[in-house]
Amino acid sequence: MIRIGTRESQLAVWQANQVKSLLSDQGVEAELVYIKSEGDVDLKTPLYEMGVQGIFTRSLDIALLNNTIDLAVHSMKDVPTQLPEGIAQAAVLKRASWKDLLIHKGEHFIFDDKLAASDCIIATSSIRRKAQWLNRYPHHSIENLRGNVNTRLRKLEESNWNGAIFAAAGLERIALRPENSVELDWMLPAPAQGAITVACRTNDKSLLQTCNTFNDTNTDLCTKIERDFLRALLGGCSTPISALAQVSDNQVYFRGNILSVDGKHKVEIDKTIQISEAAGIGKIYAAELLANGGQEIADGIQKK
Length: 304
What we know:
This protein has helices at 10-25, 38-41, 58-65, 113-117, 127-136, 149-158, 168-173, 205-212, 217-232, 281-303, and strands at residues 2-6, 30-34, 71-75, 87-92, 100-104, 121-123, 141-143, 163-167, 181-183, 196-201, 241-248, 251-259, 266-274. By secondary structure, the chain is of the alpha/beta class.
């Protein structure tokens, strides 16, 4: 019986059950093991103040290394770009929506010049979302919003905020996307947003081979490019770095950016390359971004 480690939130359990079902398709029985993460315990401190790399994955990593579980299932955007020694990526599932959503309160909330000039309060714990929102709507205020999807939806409902930003994939997977939501097509996602990854012990060759049967090649490639871009920029959840790679017609389309925390400064990159030439491009694009103004933004963030 394979033991699948998961956080206790509704979304995390949904993701773990997806992996359980995929294992079942291979004739492998599995059970869920529930483990609390540090990110689930402290729901008040903004993520970018918590030294957040691995805040949602560390407890599961420890359980893997202690042989308490055999597999760990994560939202891939939460996983540090450098895995702990002894732990390997076993599979990446096919990506769902990469987009962010704004859940707003009231029909008057219209995306036009009036919104840019109005005084709105938007909630998010993501420094990436905060920076991109302020870059577009500098007159708005940003409030911290922590907790699992259900908790954040409840906090939004009980608040005086005008809206809050969520990942579309998370809400859609557990059928909680409300009608009063708008896709933020202009907002680039966190690297690997919308993807689910499975990790196991490096020496568990049999389980690595089993999980490889449901690894999605295109999602694996795109998320690797995005995470290489992030790592080369020395970024994490406390840095406003975004990246999106997409495959179409044997080409990889890549967009990435880095912003100052206050959203006042932004440097972007937009590239297209053949899949056959895509190896290592995440690092190459990061170097190009830094050379074209990104380094100044990165240095400013590191000093704070």
